Amino acid sequence: MKSRLVPxxxxxxxxxxxxxxxxxxxxxxxSREPARWNAAAQGTSPARPDEAALxxxxxxxxxxxxxxLVERASSSNLDLMQARARLREARARR
Length: 94
Description:
Elements: H1 2-18, H2 51-55, H3 64-75, H4 78-93
């Protein structure tokens, strides 16, 4: 019974492994990171970003439907309202 299973298993594994091969015209992509990528780890990070802009990051898309959905979800979600209250309290204490 093992002899019947070997050819299908062998064909399947060969078919799967052939998907891992690259062609002869493969060019390795440029993987250099930007100069500012590791700025925070080096202690040279720029000033803190505007917190008000970060609080409304989705407005950068300019989509009124998305803005309406986010505002509706945040105004009717008690967990979010409690989290906001705790955040305001923590900021006031700081």
